[in-house]
From TrEMBL:
Compartment annotation: Membrane
Taxonomic source organism: Marinibacterium profundimaris
Name of the protein in question: Adenylate cyclase
Biological process according to GO: cyclic nucleotide biosynthetic process; intracellular signal transduction
Coarse class of the protein's main subcellular location: membrane
One cellular component (GO) term of this entry: membrane
Matches recorded under SMART domains: CYCc
Gene Ontology terms, MF aspect: adenylate cyclase activity; nucleotide binding
Top-level taxon in the UniProt lineage: Bacteria
Domain Guanylate cyclase positions: 163-290
InterPro entries registered for this protein in UniProt: A/G_cyclase (IPR001054), Cyclic_nucleotide_synthase (IPR050401), Nucleotide_cyclase (IPR029787)
Annotated keywords: Lyase, Membrane, Nucleotide-binding, Transmembrane, Transmembrane helix
Matching PROSITE patterns: GUANYLATE_CYCLASE_2
Length: 345
């Protein structure tokens, strides 16, 4: 029925399934061994659509490749199928060429799965990196964090001049012992979060908290020409925040603040459990000034009076004996209130 060279070519289609069928009746005229291996029911004379599962008359009209699935020895094979129309001795024919692409599809699926896994792990790493960055930025300034991540260490640096703000709450130990710890810690967290925002607005960098003690520095890590003014504004806003908060909350949080200017050394301390910290006379002096302050009072060293007296109300200077510093001139700073004449007008 077919020319010998055509039959020979069909028989030599190693690895490729070939089937010929009448275009009108879809009756199979020939199927090579490979095609029969994939579709055992495709004997001569049978209907092509009945012999090949998943093949319907609509697909016979397309000239685009499509995929069929068949089971051979319990294994599902993916067969890429191409249909084209031909003619022999005036008879319209359908030529079906098939190729087993199962391994190719399995490889593609593995690649897609691996790519999805890599993408998922990349997103996980990015989330973890962001989380670690947030944690580190909570304990060190951004410039210090960038130096640490770039070089793996932070060289100690001298910052001069800066102003150190030291805040401590009055009666916190008794409050913590008497109240629900969850409530106490929750309120302390709210207050410190507000302090962080105030410090950011005023140009102060929070360095650390130790229990109920809060320390911030103005002029670090970047120089600030008005560091004393920034620290004083920050302290006043913190006291104002506590005053307003105490009017609406059961627990009364009352603080003492000390502000001192001078030089400090900043560096990352520790290897496994590291923390950024600052050291120096200004830190110790601010701590001593905080200790001698009355509740809801801000105490500054006398050397800052000239810089701040035009902006804040400052008490006459007095002399205090500070441990480690001896006799030191200090003053009390408070928010400047409008004059009575200005209010009346």
């Amino acid at each position: 029925m077919f020319p010998e060279d055509l039959s020979a070519r069909l028989l030599k289609s190693i690895g490729v399934g070939v089937c010929l069928a009448e275009a009108g009746t879809r009756r199979i005229l020939y199927a090579n061994p490979t095609f029969l291996g994939w579709f055992p029911d495709a004997a001569s004379g049978t209907d092509l659509c009945e012999a090949v599962g998943g093949l319907d008359p609509v697909r016979l009209e397309t000239d685009r490749p499509f995929e069929l699935r068949t089971k051979v020895k319990r294994r599902t094979l993916v067969i890429e199928t191409q249909l084209r129309k031909a003619e022999h001795d005036g008879r319209p024919l359908l030529v079906i060429e098939c190729q087993n692409v199962s391994r190719l599809r399995e490889t593609e699926a593995m690649i897609d799965s691996y790519a999805a896994m890599v993408d998922r792990r990349t997103r996980d790493l990015e989330r973890e990196k962001t989380h670690v960055e947030k944690l580190l930025l909570n304990i060190m300034p951004r410039s210090v964090y960038e130096e640490y991540t770039t070089f793996g260490s932070v060289a100690p640096r001298l910052f001069e001049p800066v102003s150190v703000l030291m805040l401590d709450f009055v009666g916190f130990t008794e409050m913590a012992a008497a109240a629900d710890p969850t409530v106490t810690v929750g309120e302390l967290n709210d207050i410190f979060t507000a302090f962080d925002r105030i410090g950011e607005l005023c140009g102060c960098e929070r360095i650390k908290t130790i229990g109920d003690c809060y320390m911030a520095v103005a002029g670090l890590p970047h120089p600030h020409p008005d560091h004393a003014l920034a620290a004083a504004r920050c302290a006043v806003k913190m006291m104002r925040y506590l005053d307003r908060r105490n009017t609406t909350h059961q627990h009364q949080w009352r603080a003492r603040i000390g502000i001192a200017s001078g030089s400090v050394v900043g560096s990352v301390v520790g290897i496994q459990k590291y923390v950024y910290d600052v050291f120096g006379p200004a830190v110790n002096r601010a701590a001593r000034l905080q200790q001698i302050s009355d509740p809801m009072e801000i105490t500054i060293c006398g050397s800052l009076m000239g810089e701040l007296i035009d902006t804040f109300d400052i008490s006459p200077p007095r002399t205090e004996d500070l441990r480690g510093f001896g006799e030191v001139s200090v003053a009390t700073l408070s928010e400047r209130r409008p004059a009575a004449s200005a209010i009346a007008s």
